[in-house]
Design brief:
The protein is mainly alpha-helical. The chain is built from six helices and no strands. It is found in: Nucleus.
Length: about 180
């Protein structure tokens, strides 16, 4: 029994070390991409090939005969959950949370009190009022947009309107500094 456990532990340790190496390789590739954006494409292809091979090795180790059948679908040893015994009734109950039930009841009661919220029970007069209010709001917005566009057109004709220069992105400035070694404005 001890021999079987030691072989299982050895196989798991091998998978863990290869997974750590894979994580390290991916981190290196990400940092290379972030700090050296002009890296040539063949470098990335070779790194992708390395990552692909490492992942393939992990998958073949995972399907090794030394591991028990239950472990063939996991990359690492699953841990047993230890639920708090006080939480078990909460997990097994079939009713909603009392606060949620209370909020649902209040929402249903508020819909019964305010009939305007229920669209099926509106009268023609209420619908006409809603339509007029919407039309007034749209006309007010249209008038405000027309006035704003007239003011903008006048400023353009007079020459007061000046196109603002887009500021240089700090990220691109940092990359230019890394490439050239000089700060530019």
């Amino acid at each position: 029994m001890s021999n079987a456990n030691s072989e299982k532990d050895r196989a798991l340790q091998s998978i863990r070390s290869r997974a750590d190496h894979l994580r390290h390789t991916i981190t290196q590739l990400e940092s290379r991409l972030a700090w050296y954006p002009l890296t040539q494409w063949p470098y990335f292809l070779s790194q992708f090939q390395v990552i692909s091979k490492q992942l393939e090795n992990i998958m073949t180790l995972k399907d090794d005969e030394e591991l028990p059948e239950s472990m063939h679908h996991f990359v690492c040893m699953p841990r047993m959950s230890t639920p708090n015994p006080a939480d078990i009734p909460l997990l097994l109950r079939t009713r909603e949370d009392p606060e949620m039930e209370k909020a649902d009841d209040e929402l249903l009661a508020s819909e019964r009190v305010n009939p305007l919220k229920r669209k099926a029970s509106w009268t023609w007069e209420e619908l006409e009022g809603q339509k007029l209010a919407h039309t007034d709001m749209v006309e007010t917005l249209e008038k405000a947009f027309k006035e704003a566009s007239d003011v903008l057109l006048k400023e353009i004709r007079v020459g007061k309107f000046q196109e603002k220069v887009k500021p240089v992105s700090t990220q691109s400035a940092v990359y230019k500094y890394m490439e050239s070694g000089q700060w530019t404005n």
